[in-house]
Write a structure and sequence with these properties.
Mean pLDDT: 88
Number of strands: 10
Largest sheet: 8 strands, mixed
CATH topology: Rossmann fold
Order of helices and strands: EEEEEEHEHEHHHHHHEHEHH
CATH architecture: 3-Layer(aba) Sandwich
Radius of gyration: 19 Å
CATH superfamily: Alpha/Beta hydrolase fold, catalytic domain
Shape: globular
Low-confidence stretches: 5-34, 335-339
CATH class: Alpha Beta
Distance between the termini: 32 Å
Number of domains: 1
Length: 339
């Protein structure tokens, strides 16, 4: 996900237990209820890196010995938790997968007291170190939102021999904008949605509900849902997203480090490497569809559009998303046993 709304999100983003929370629908009063979102299972294995400047938390899911997918969360400055539990379906695709998640530097369980700016290059170098330390070769990457942009930045930098492991395949799910201009379009569109009549009505409903006094935990969950509602084709779907928070200074320093960026020319040079790539984008994503289409063109692939989905297809249209990923993994040969 992008950076704006989760900065004010609830502190419970790292909790793994389900809590009582409110749910709301169009035209009805807020009521207390239990989320239908399944609880997050514990990882098969987890730990911290020892070769990175800051210890980075990692977690493995799925079958040991199966081909591994490295899954990159969004943000920047967030954690992997909000991809769960839905993205764990990746473990069941195309003969079975091991999934490796890690919290990028400055977020989640990888926070640091070091006040030195964290840049896009910091994150790329950390990704390279994670791949080396955890022996991710071949390196199959699934990047979501900012994680998709990070995957592209890593692939571009991997043409330099200092990054020992080039990606063997890339899946880019609703990647962050590939130019500063597209990012400005996203920010304007997200702000417009957050001030739209539907979201404003739900905010007013929450303010008048008395939930803050009656059930503070449920109120915080509902407030989080409304802070991210503009990402969704149907704002009510936000109730199925695991709450999380973003470290504001990290998101700011990473985006500032990119300057007036435009990845298209560099992505075009990647085409000669022949990296199998899948780009998917929700039709109703506030991030411009044109950004993902431009990335796909530059990479010599196509952008597959998921209808009736905003920025979070793993919540909004999971059957379509995981069907596309299953076919891609099968067709790219990444079902071969891990080496």
């Amino acid at each position: 996900m992008q950076d704006r709304p989760p900065q004010s999100a609830v502190a419970e983003g790292r909790e793994r237990k389900a809590e009582s929370r409110s749910s709301a629908a169009h035209g009805v009063h807020l009521r207390r209820g239990v989320s239908t979102r399944p609880s997050i299972p514990p990882p098969r294995e987890d730990g911290y890196t020892t070769t990175t400047p800051v210890p980075l938390y990692w977690a493995r899911y799925g079958a040991a010995g199966a081909p591994t997918l490295l899954v990159l969360h969004g943000g920047p400055g967030a954690s992997h938790d909000y991809l769960l539990p839905q993205m764990l379906r990746l473990a069941d695709l195309a003969g079975g997968r091991e999934l490796l998640f890690y919290d990028q530097r400055g977020g989640g369980r990888s926070q640091t007291d070091d006040r030195a700016p964290i840049t896009w290059r910091t994150q790329v170098e950390d990704l390279a170190a994670v791949a080396r330390e955890l022996a991710l070769d071949p390196l199959h990457v699934v990047g979501y939102s900012w994680g998709g942009l990070l995957a592209m930045l890593y692939a571009i930098e991997s043409t330099d021999s200092s990054l020992s492991t080039r990606p063997s395949s890339l899946v880019l799910v609703d990647p962050a904008p590939i130019t500063r201009a597209f990012r400005h379009e996203f920010e304007a569109e997200f702000a417009r949605r957050q001030q739209g009549p539907e979201v404003l009505a739900l905010r007013d409903e929450l303010a008048r509900s008395g939930l803050r006094e009656r059930d503070p935990a449920a109120y915080r969950h509902r407030a989080f849902e409304l802070s991210v509602a503009g990402y969704f084709a149907d704002p009510r779907a936000a109730r199925e997203l695991t709450p999380f928070r973003v470290t504001g200074r990290v998101q700011q320093s990473v985006w500032e480090s990119l300057g007036d960026f435009d990845l298209a020319p560099d992505l075009a040079r990647l085409r000669t490497l022949g990296i199998p790539t899948l780009v998917v984008h929700g039709r109703e994503d506030p991030i411009p569809l044109a950004s993902s289409q431009a990335a796909a063109r530059a990479l010599g692939t196509t952008c597959v559009v998921i209808e009736a989905s905003g920025h979070v297809p793993y919540v909004e249209q999971p059957a379509q998303l995981f069907g596309l990923l299953r076919d891609f993994l099968r067709d790219t040969g990444s079902t071969l046993p891990a080496q």
